[in-house]
Q: What sequence folds into this?
């Protein structure tokens, strides 16, 4: 059973404003909620689940839970096909000063707008063992339900920070390699690349903003495959695809 | 000016059933329509555009066009923010028997469901000079407006066919390498791969179907980056990301 006021509140969490106000976000799906229950770094605020889910799962006593009907679940879910469980989770407080970028690759996202792209990039970063992603302040918020969904659980393992990328890079205690995919960069397959530093991925249509381009010291390019007879060519790769190709390369071919 | 009946008809093209019935699909956006006008292989049936677009562009005399208001355009558009032009395009008739897969890489998609994924895969295939994609019959249709949009114009340069992948592979006149990304495959970075044959990408959650797995003769794996201290790992990469990484590798590192 769930009150109308509570339904309204949960539904409001699709909006950033209310997520911020309530410091909560939504995680849906059996697999993601099961994983969340195992993570000590994430605090579940409330679980709403079908009876079938509640019978098969154990919830620690300190986490409040409610049994809901399929109809109730569909009213609080933002999925087209609701799953059997929905969790409200406390938004964690992370401090960007706690991370030390000097010994590993850190991903930087400049103005990524599409929630599906951000979720897929988090999932990809997780695959390639990237611990931290630093986003520009105008990048879509990580706790957007579409981002959480597309990350396929990887949001639990990769920390996502928001700050001014320019200021962050300008105030590093020591200079580090700053890589970025640019059409005029060095061929990814013909150059050696460092195993640490930053990789910047730019906006879906505008690419990396000019103020950040200036701070890139390793421009790299994923070569376009030129085919005889083709008169027109694509202009770019999708931001997530480009990030995946470069990360895969960085993790397997570092000089 | 556009009639209510015509608006209804154009809106019906978001559904596969009506696209098939009318043999038409929708292309939106200045860039995509400009490119279409240059392509001889694509037949534009009708153009609906704002006055501003019509003033700046030349349309061949044999293509009917109508000036529409912003309000009318928003009624026929399937975009949240409609552009200045929408084209109805005849669905082309392609014959899979016209392609010869023996000398190049052909992509095969097994039950890809997400239109954004298909569009991104087409765009990626275009970047890596793949001419043909063969999809299983249950893969989302290429003329779905979300696929067209996500392909960023690449649908014009990559031919997409639908057939039974199993039958197609079983009836090849000569045996060819059949590659597929599988968790138990050879490390992509530690094995040599052929420069021709098929690369199969599987469904977003189920992967490649068992009947096709049997036909794969080169199982490959994108290595997961193992990081000390991480107790949980992601299960897989997004289908588009995996395809991009393997295609990029195939085009740059073939043995």
A:
């Amino acid at each position: 059973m769930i009150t109308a006021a509570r339904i309204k509140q949960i539904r409001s969490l699709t909006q950033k404003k209310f997520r911020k106000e309530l410091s909560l976000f939504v995680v849906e799906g059996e697999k993601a909620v099961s994983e969340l229950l195992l993570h000590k770094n994430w605090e579940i605020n409330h679980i709403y689940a079908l009876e079938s889910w509640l019978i098969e799962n154990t919830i620690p006593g300190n986490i409040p839970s409610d049994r809901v009907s399929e109809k109730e679940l569909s009213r609080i879910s933002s999925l087209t096909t609701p799953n059997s469980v929905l969790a409200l989770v406390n938004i964690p407080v992370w401090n960007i000063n706690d991370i030390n970028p000097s010994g590993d690759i850190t991903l930087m996202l400049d103005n990524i707008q599409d929630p599906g792209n951000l979720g897929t990039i988090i999932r990809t970063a997780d695959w390639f063992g990237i611990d931290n992603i630093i986003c520009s302040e105008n990048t879509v918020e990580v706790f957007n339900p579409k981002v959480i969904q597309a990350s396929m659980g990887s949001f639990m393992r990769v920390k996502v920070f928001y700050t001014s990328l320019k200021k962050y890079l300008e105030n590093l205690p020591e200079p580090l390699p700053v890589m970025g995919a640019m059409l005029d960069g060095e061929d990814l397959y013909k150059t050696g690349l460092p195993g640490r530093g930053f990789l910047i991925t730019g906006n879906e249509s505008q690419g990396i903003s000019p103020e950040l381009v200036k701070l890139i010291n390793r421009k790299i390019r994923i070569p376009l495959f030129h085919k005889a007879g083709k008169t027109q060519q694509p202009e770019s790769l999708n931001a997530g695809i480009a990030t995946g190709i470069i990360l895969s390369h960085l993790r397997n071919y570092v000089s």
